[in-house]
Write a structure and sequence with these properties.
Elements (H helix, E strand, L loop, with lengths): L1 H33 L3 H82 L3 H45 L3 H16 L4 H11 L2 E4 L2 H4 L4 E3 H5 L8 H10 L12 H20 L13 E8 L11 E8 L4 E2 L6 H19 L4 E6 L7 H14 L4 E5 L16 E4 L9 E4 L13 H7 L14 E4 L2 H10 L10 E4 L6 H10 L4 E6 H14 L5 H7 E4 L11 H9 L9 H7 L4 H15 L8 H17 L1
Parallel strand pairs: 1-6, 6-7, 10-11, 10-12, 12-13
Antiparallel strand pairs: 2-4, 3-4, 4-5, 8-9
Length: about 625
């Protein structure tokens, strides 16, 4: 402000001086006009020229002083605007903090009153606290509206301040621009709304726990309806009632005869569904059944006399026993079935059920029943389970398997390593025990290895292509393909099948033959050239199995892309670093979706496929 006053005074002084010079110039001009004689005219011209120069100089000084004044004035105005907007921001931030504190305090009161209601033992106390809670809820609503208004004003002021401080805009213009930008910003996700969207996409992880998950002998109806989760067997009982379609209204039926008839019908329905999955029998013909009854406490339990409870039974042809009187395996499978079927009925998206050692209490056939439930529910939820049992691993679904082990077996604090299906051979032999054990199960009881017509393939990718392509060749239906995870496990598979005296052949592709033939001679039981010729079929023309397709069919059914390819399919895949797993998945999906037949492929592909399987059949 001092600088503005000084510059204004200088401008005023220069302006007065300019006016004086103007008068002098006017007088000199008049004098020049009046001069008639040459000598007087010469004197007048010199005087006028001198004053003209002084006037021009004074005019420049004045313009400079005026310019300085306007600059100082503009600067002072901007500072004033900035000071004003900063004061406004400081004030609104204080209001915002105060309003937020009031809202949080009132929200804490609501929580406190709810807690007091839960703790209140007398009706009078509960009623009084309920009234306080209702008033507090009304106050919270009002404070939320107030807080929202203050927050909106704060956002506008801070946005306006940003414009004023960084662009020197005037407050009014900056505020108009800020309003426009805030409206545009509202069309986008803010952190809160974006978080809400992302959280909806995050899977809901649930862990199947024995304490609340295993079906109890009995449970109070009050505990179930009031969701007392700490009660033993709560989750299993809730799942059973949910699966049976029961709620509190069902148990309010006063007519005991009607109630018992309804319960009997529900027992039959649930048992029928359960027996679709539980293939075990007690004796030759009798399968177990589920059963529940609604009872009431009598005088032997005086503190609960007259209160209802639900009693559960597991029945067979001869006996009716409580769940805890049955084997842990039966009880576990029953509770596991209830958990998964109830979860399926809820139809919750992005649900992941975690199960630790599902087959721990079950024998081999019962573990296969567990797999049936998993397969039935795979479309409605994801199930992740850990196991050491070979009966819960399917080698025809190895793409689902992850091997987990410690980075350092000697160090309990070392990190956990997770190996994808394509890297299973990097896992230790102990980790892969379930897979190896599965291969050693009696041949008559497994679908992985047969007594004859087995073809060992170099990797799982080749397996997927040949498994589906074999459906195009009627004679190939007898071929049983066994995938090796990679070339390192080929000798192991060959030795196992040789030791079991099982008929088999081995397929090697061009890219693998050189390194593998020598290794097979050294490490496998096939120890001479004649035996190798008899057991191993080498396809020199196929660097990878994808080369069996023509370029046109490869692009159409595998690559799913229109692109000019001037090289072999295998070279294109390796050059471009493409994922063979993804390409194989594309082919399998197209094969299933379009119901491909031999006629679906062009002449080149048909010829290659037919020659491939002719050679395989000759090998067998």
């Amino acid at each position: 402000l001092v600088k503005l006053g000084e510059s204004e005074q200088i401008k005023s002084d220069e302006e007065q001086e300019l006016k004086l010079k103007r008068k002098e110039l006017d007088e000199a001009k008049k004098k020049l006009k009046r001069a008639k004689k040459p000598d007087l005219m010469l004197i007048a011209e010199k005087e006028f020229s001198s004053i003209q120069k002084e006037y021009n100089k004074q005019e420049k000084d004045y313009l400079k002083a005026a310019e300085t004044y306007e600059t100082v004035k503009a600067s002072t105005t901007n500072v004033s605007e900035q000071i004003k907007i900063c004061k406004n921001c400081k004030q609104i931030i204080e209001e915002y903090d105060e309003s937020l504190a009031q809202l949080r305090e009132k929200q804490r009161e609501v929580l406190d009153y709810r807690h007091l209601i839960e703790l209140s033992s007398s009706v009078k106390d509960r009623r009084r606290n309920q009234q306080k809670l209702e008033r507090a809820v009304v106050d919270v609503t009002a404070l939320q509206l107030k807080f929202q208004k203050i927050r909106d004003r704060k956002d506008l002021l801070l946005y306006t301040a940003h414009k004023v401080l960084n662009t020197s805009d005037r407050i009014k213009a900056a505020e108009q621009q800020a309003r426009k930008e805030i409206e545009e910003r509202k069309k986008l996700y803010n952190l809160c709304s974006l978080g809400e969207v992302l959280f909806k996409l995050i899977p809901v992880f649930e862990f199947f726990e024995d304490f609340s998950g295993l079906l109890p002998n009995k449970i109070d109806l009050e505990d179930v309806l009031n969701e007392h989760e700490h009660v033993e067997g709560f989750q299993a009982a809730k799942n059973f009632l949910s699966l049976a379609g029961l709620d509190g209204a069902f148990f309010r039926e006063k007519n005991q005869r009607i109630l018992k008839q309804s319960i009997e019908a529900l027992n039959t329905d649930v048992t029928v569904n359960f027996q679709d999955y539980w293939s075990q029998q007690v004796g030759k013909n009798s399968k177990i059944k589920l059963h529940f009854e609604l009872e009431h406490y009598d005088y032997t339990v005086p503190e609960k006399k007259g209160k209802p409870y639900i009693e559960f039974w597991i029945k067979d042809k001869q006996n009716r026993l409580y769940p805890k009187q049955r084997s842990r395996g039966v009880r576990w499978f029953l509770s596991f079935y209830l958990e998964l079927k109830a979860a399926e009925a809820k139809n919750i998206g992005n649900r992941v059920l975690l199960i630790d050692e599902p087959g721990l209490s079950l024998h081999a056939r019962a573990q296969e029943d567990v797999l049936k439930v998993f397969e039935d529910l795979k479309e409605s939820m994801q199930v992740i389970y850990c196991t050491h049992s070979p009966h819960l691993v399917r080698t025809d679904k190895l793409y689902r398997v992850l091997a987990v082990q410690r980075a350092d077996e000697e160090d309990d604090n070392s990190e956990s390593l997770v190996f994808e299906p394509s890297r299973l051979t990097e896992a230790s032999a102990d980790t892969l025990t379930p897979v190896y054990s599965l291969m050693g199960i009696k041949l008559s009881n497994n679908q992985v290895i047969r007594e004859s017509n087995n073809i060992i393939l170099p990797d799982t990718i080749t397996y997927y292509y040949l498994f589906w392509l074999s459906k195009l060749i009627p004679e190939a239906s007898k071929v049983n393909f066994i995938p090796s995870t990679n070339e390192n496990t080929l000798p192991l598979l060959i030795n196992i099948l040789t030791g079991w005296n099982v008929n088999f052949g081995v397929v090697l592709l061009g890219s693998e033959k050189n390194s593998l033939l020598g290794e097979l001679k050294e490490t496998s039981l096939i120890d001479n050239d004649q035996a190798i010729k008899k057991k191993i079929s080498i396809f020199d023309e196929l660097e990878l199995i994808e080369d069996v397709f023509s370029t046109l069919d490869f692009k159409k059914y595998v690559l799913e892309k229109r692109e000019g390819i001037t090289e072999k399919n295998s070279d294109y895949i390796l050059t471009n670093g493409l994922s063979r797993k993804i390409l194989a998945t594309n082919f399998v999906n197209n094969f299933s979706k379009e119901k491909l037949s031999m006629e679906s492929f062009d002449e080149t592909s048909r010829k290659n496929i037919q020659e491939l399987f002719d050679k395989l059949l000759d090998l067998l």
